[in-house]
Hints:
With 286 residues, this protein is mainly alpha-helical. It has helices at 3-9, 13-33, 52-58, 61-95, 98-113, 116-127, 132-139, 147-150, 152-177, 181-189, 194-205, 207-222, 226-231, 243-253, 257-283.
Amino acid sequence: MTRRTLARALPLTPAVVLLLLFLAGPIAYCAYIAFTDLQLTGQAESSFVGLENFRTAFGDEGFRNAVWLTLVFTVVSSLVGQNTLGLALASLMQRASKPVRTLTGGIVITAWVLPEVVAGFLLYAFFRREGTLNAVLDALHLPRQNWLFTLPILAVSFANVWRGTAFSMLVYSAALQEIPREVTEAAQVDGAGGWRRLWHITLPMIRRSIGTNLMLNTLQTLSVFGLIWVMTRGGPGDRSQTLPLFMYEQAFQNSMIGYGTAVALLLLLVGALFSVLYLRLLRTEV
Length: 286
């Protein structure tokens, strides 16, 4: 290694050490635990069990149910909900007056900056049997439902959309401002309607922002725990038990740390697969 290369690498040394200590180290330790039968109680010492925890997971109906609900929760609340609503709000705010933009942005961002537990309590009060939503339905003489019992995964998905849309809105607001006005005006003069301009001009020109937003939103949604825990605790039964809640139940309620950590590694793998997919899409030229 030349002196010049060493001089360039030296400033990065503290960051590399911190990453190894606080990121790579815990991940490596968790990876080791996932191959053991470590328990919180009733066990003097753990032993190496190889792939047994992973075989147990793939044969566990509860795990398969959690995987399915995690995919539903991610697609509905992140890929469709936050992404689409964020783009719609950003587009509408571009055309709105300054007072409307300020008011709308303030309301949406307030939901985003609320702590996850506080947001969970607010949405629980909104969806519960005697909550705000049913009160509105009663006022409109429409049938009420116990939303947290009949449609729990959709209720928590809506809650995540309500809380997380602000990030997508901010990303797309910045991206839309980078589109040259001359391009949009030329398309309008040529007779392109709003939907055609959106599909053929706006979306291709903000493709990289869409990919980045989808990746960050997906990774955040895969790890949502507090919001669902406060609203439903994964219930009723296991009808809203996503992978983070299933992992928590196995590790800390059933005391099976090894098995719970194996589930956590599988969740990490799912996030990695989504990341690779989005990165490949970002590298693809239009």
